[in-house]
Model the fold of this input.
Amino acid sequence: MRILVIGKDGQVGQKIQNLVNKTSDTNYSNYDFVFIGRDELDLSKARNIQAYFKKNKFDVAINCAAYTKVEQAEVNENDANLINHLAVKEIATIAKKNNMKLIHISTDFVFDGDKSQPYIETDTTSPINIYGKTKLAGEIAAISIMRFNTVILRTSWIYSEYGNNFVNTIIKNAMLKGKLNIISDQFGTPTYASDLAQTIIVGTFNLIEEAKSYWQSLQGEKKETFRFLHVSTDEVYGDLKASSDLFSEETPYNPSSPYSASKASSDHLVRAWYRTYGFPILITN
Ligand SMILES: NC(=O)c1ccc[n+]([C@@H]2O[C@H](COP(=O)([O-])OP(=O)(O)OC[C@H]3O[C@@H](n4cnc5c(N)ncnc54)[C@H](OP(=O)(O)O)[C@@H]3O)[C@@H](O)[C@H]2O)c1
Done:
């Protein structure tokens, strides 16, 4: 299987590279990963994308590239739209033609932030800035072109050792200034880029692909009764307070640690395999 990772120099792209290189001997012998950045493919022109995919064929594309400068997008709408929307549309169009699966990273900025509970996938989108609007346009384009071969992972507040992010900025400024004045009315779920990379690539991905192939090879009753049992955790719902109701399957996800966030992400991935391929699943939390 040939897997293309677009955006190799970004936080998530670099983490996927680290992960694959670190464990390639044991886990990835059947996978041929290709990592590309802006030098190999500038996404701002549709003809570059077409030319690249004419020469290079893949089974899966993971798009980690994006115009991520949220404030600058307000004055550079055209650039943000080219990368976050039109490039995604072009990739999805090519992916559909070539029967390639697309894993695309998106953002909580597709929502307006007015909800007091954590957002879930089915909540109404209503972006309030250009970045969010262009990312949502990219999502909609990919899903409408290739509903059954697209997986969209909406994440938020990515941090890592690389690049500009909230954690690095605070550390840098704390060391420089000692005292910091910071807004206190913004809330988010920080996501360690390594956890996101692991979720995209490792365990769930490998296991579920193997299980899907096995399921597809089955016939008749065996195929009908097959279930992929994904054992998760109640920690995806957050912390149970003495005063709160018991968790149920309807409780919104609200993971509060990297571990529970990674479990929540793999739950979503398993559900995506069900929605995309009809792959029969059972999830226990
Ligand atoms: N960072 C966050 O807090 C956050 C939150 C929610 C969702 N997300 C989403 O998560 C994904 C990954 O984010 P990240 O933090 O890893 O982003 P990042 O570190 O800003 O990396 C984005 C990458 O996209 C590349 N890129 C931008 N314009 C390009 C172009 N015209 N052609 C080719 N490549 C181009 C950049 O290349 P250069 O290195 O050459 O500039 C960069 O390597 C993105 O889809 C983002 O929207 C991020």
Remarks:
- The radius of gyration is 20 Å.
- The chain has ten helices and nine strands.
- The longest helix spans residues 77-97.
- The mean pLDDT is 89.
